[in-house]
TrEMBL record:
SUPFAM superfamilies: Nucleotidylyl transferase
Pfam families per UniProt: CTP_transf_like
Site (Transition state stabilizer): H17
Species this chain originates from: Paracoccus onchidii
Protein name: Phosphopantetheine adenylyltransferase
Binding sites annotated in the UniProt record for substrate: T9, K41, L78, R92
């Protein structure tokens, strides 16, 4: 069974993330969405809220595609998380060249830690390249409409948080 791991903080999950998840499903038999606990970041949503939002979105995707998606919170090294879930592939989404520079370094480090786990980059769909969770939160905080960047349940969660 080909198992892939798509890690991130997903604070919140956006349509850009959904696009990568849907396309990654074509590459693996099971996709694990690793929701990171990152102590260096101050997430808007706590871990339980982020996991619930990701799970809800993944349930919709899985019912539409028939694929297997699991949501897995983690706080350890990414490569250790990949081992924990049995992933042979780490899926990363790229929006711009700046993303690639950072990801290139991460791949080198991950390969040094475990050369058996590959990293696959998926370019964001052109319509989704500008979407970043940080910007979505800023738009929502200032009362802007985030409908074109997130699903309706995520939009409602943002509005509730900032109301």
């Amino acid at each position: 069974m080909r198992i892939g791991l798509y890690p991130g903080t997903f604070d919140p999950i956006t349509l850009g993330h959904v696009d990568i998840i849907e396309r990654a499903m074509a590459l693996v038999d099971r996709l694990v969405i690793g929701v990171a606990i990152n102590r260096d970041k101050q997430p808007l949503f706590n871990l339980e809220e982020r996991v619930a939002m990701v799970q809800a979105e993944c349930d919709v995707i899985a019912s539409r595609t028939g694929g297997e998606i699991r949501v897995h919170p983690f706080e350890n090294l990414l490569i250790d998380c990949a081992r924990d879930v049995g992933a042979g592939v780490i899926v990363r989404g790229l929006r711009a060249v700046a993303d690639f520079e950072y990801e290139f370094q991460m791949v080198g480090m991950n390969r040094a830690l475990d050369a058996q786990i590959e990293t696959v980059f998926l370019m964001a769909d052109a319509r989704r390249q500008a979407i970043a969770s940080k910007l979505v939160k800023e738009i929502a905080r200032l009362g802007g409409d985030v409908s074109q960047f997130v699903t309706e349940p995520v939009k409602q969660a943002l509005q509730a948080r900032y109301s």
